[in-house]
Amino acid sequence: MNGEIIVRVADLRAGSNQDVLVTIGLGSCVAVLLHDPVAKVGGLAHVLLPSTALGRKDDGPAKFPQTAVPRLLELMAELGANTRRVTARLAGGASMFASLAAPGTIQMGERNTVACRQVLMHHGVPIAGQATGGDYGRTVKLWVADGRVEVSSVSHGVQTL
């Protein structure tokens, strides 16, 4: 399966070789991008909420970092990744409606980013780069072959992680 793989909200996918993993329209959600450069295996989860306490019993594993990260590591291992070589990048976690919130309120995007960092640290996955925060949406692409991550937005152009 080589080509562009779209990862929707609260979904996750792993890919290898020439696959390009893409998620569109990240606002307060966080894209967790994982990569093993030796095996040329990558994964992307589009995390919606910071905690399983905010969900329902029938929610899929990609919705929360606590379940998305271990599931993504499993899928990547099935494709030949070694979890000791995997590094992470994070994108998204914007405060899309900060101007509407009470002063001092912790925004959902920030909560999502912090939760993702904590889960990655718990699993021993170092964060190699991030493009998080702000008040604008993003689209993210991971080229699995070389691990390049491109984060683009209408208002802020393209950034490579």
What topology emerges from the helices and strands here?
Elements: E1 4-6, E2 12-16, E3 20-26, E4 30-36, E5 41-47, H1 65-78, E6 87-92, H2 108-122, E7 127-132, E8 138-143, E9 148-153, E10 157-160
Parallel strand pairs: 1-3, 6-7
Antiparallel strand pairs: 2-5, 3-8, 4-5, 4-6, 8-9, 9-10
How would you sum up this structure in a few lines?
With 161 residues, the protein is α+β, with helices and mostly antiparallel strands. Helices cover 18% and strands 35% of the residues.
Give a written overview of the molecule.
This protein has one domain: 2-Layer Sandwich (60s Ribosomal Protein L30, Chain: A), CATH 3.30.1330. 18% of the residues lie in helices and 35% in strands. It contains 2 helices and 10 strands; from the N terminus they run βββββαβαββββ. The strands form 2 sheets. It has a 5-stranded mixed sheet with strand order 1-3-8-9-10, with no helix packed on it. Strands 2-5-4-6-7 form a 5-stranded mixed sheet, covered by helices on one side. The radius of gyration is 15 Å and the shape is globular.
